[in-house]
Amino acid sequence: MTLVTGRATSGPLWRVVAVMTARRLVAGLLVLFAVSVVVFVATEIAPGDAASASLGPDAGPAAIEARRAELGLDRPAPLRYVEWLGGLFRGDLGVSYASGVPVADIVAARAGNSLLLGGLAAVLLLPLAVVLGAWAGLRAGRLADRAVSKSTLTLMSVPEFVTGTLLAVVFAVQLGWLPAVSFLPPGQSPLDRPEILVLPVITLLTVCLAHNTRVVRAGVAQSAVGEAAESARLNGVVERRVVWRYILPAALPPVVPLFARYVTFLLGGALIAETLFGYPGLASALVVASASRDVPVVQAVGLLAAAVTVLVNLAGDVVGTLLDPLRRVPR
């Protein structure tokens, strides 16, 4: 039996991971239920509704009431919530108030675009953060470390919309290398026009890469002077093996949950990046749906974002636990 952070754990690692996963899944379901309530209540108390938004400001009370009855908005809110929740269990997300298209079709089309954008950013984020962070951490206090630290601090200090705007001005307006707007003709995938992904991906990466690089750098710098690394050096182990065998295994596991949280942010399609470049993802769909009071779309996107957050964070905790036996205690 091993004592870890004041708690004891025993048994094979697979059992510990299974128990932790089961507990997190139960907690995740409770979180999703709470999110469904919050999203539904928020859409209910927001000023205006889909009926008045679709008919315009010149519509009379009778026309608005008729439209509310057509959309089912005249029924009690608790009843509509129960019906919506029941539809979720059947895989029915409802129908868009604005377009009459099934919400599942809207979400499926936009989710694929957001996952592509966020997936590309995540694929670049992890190796770049590890390489830059480890490179700076192994040279703590030297010129390379100071350069990386100042650069990342600068990136963290600049708002995302400012970074995106500057990128558009330089690479789209002045140089003309890349499109300033991620326009996508109907029926096409972003992969058909990969140039529209470049500026949104770089914009998404800036703050995420800067923060994760600094965290990795701190962990590597601490592990590089730790007892395990120093003992290995005293026993004649070559520095390259010290880095791979002792420093990185000690430095990386604690930052895996942080990576997971940023991957969640990236996969969700950052609102600012998608809106700034007009990228056809979930975030931009959420903006349009909110403006038109298209409640079913808002509810579906909000719940999907919460589900992705729960699953990615769970995966990050599982990976961190597998990499670091000292963190095997279910929380």
Automatic annotation (TrEMBL):
InterPro entries per UniProt: BPD_transp_1_N (IPR045621), MetI-like (IPR000515), MetI-like_sf (IPR035906)
The keyword Cell membrane belongs to this UniProt entry's keyword annotation: yes
Keywords: Cell membrane, Membrane, Transmembrane, Transmembrane helix, Transport
Protein's UniProt keywords contain Transmembrane: yes
Cellular compartments annotated: Cell membrane
Protein name: Peptide/nickel transport system permease protein
Sequence intervals crossing the membrane: 25-46, 115-138, 158-177, 197-213, 242-260, 266-289, 301-323
Family matches, as Gene3D superfamilies: MetI-like (1.10.3720.10)
The ABC transmembrane type-1 domain, residue ranges: 111-316
Membrane topology reported for the UniProt record: Multi-pass membrane protein
Family: Belongs to the binding-protein-dependent transport system permease family.
Domain of life: Bacteria
